Automatic annotation (TrEMBL):
Domain spans labelled GIY-YIG: 4-80
Entry's family note: Belongs to the UPF0213 family.
Protein known as: GIY-YIG nuclease family protein
Protein origin, superkingdom: Bacteria
Organism of origin: Marivirga aurantiaca
Length: 99
């Protein structure tokens, strides 16, 4: 049986003022799509393409449940998650953490 990876992630813009939470089965591909502005939705409109937080799951059910939990939380809870794991708000896409 093949192992699967699913991710919830939080992106922000250059000034760290807009937060976007998503779920994917391929974080490198999905963040690349955001960075290359391939989808003309929210992240395109608000220039959101900096990966500042993510969590990995082996179950899509768990990943979607966590995404909903994060989206339902306050902005402060999202900020606390990011600050706990990535206090400098570096773009994690350019690190080896997502591989």
């Amino acid at each position: 049986m093949r192992d699967h990876n699913y991710f919830i992630y939080i992106l922000t813009n250059r000034n760290n003022t807009v937060l976007y939470t998503g779920v994917t089965n391929n974080i490198r591909r999905r963040v690349t799509e955001h960075k290359e502005k391939l989808n003309k939705g929210f992240t395109f409109r608000y220039k959101v393409d900096k990966l500042v937080y993510f969590e990995r799951f082996s179950s899509i059910i768990e990943a979607i449940a966590r995404e909903k939990q994060i989206k339902a939380g306050s902005r402060q809870k999202k900020l606390d998650l990011i600050n706990q794991e990535n206090p400098e708000w570096i773009d994690l896409f350019y690190t080896n953490r997502i591989d």
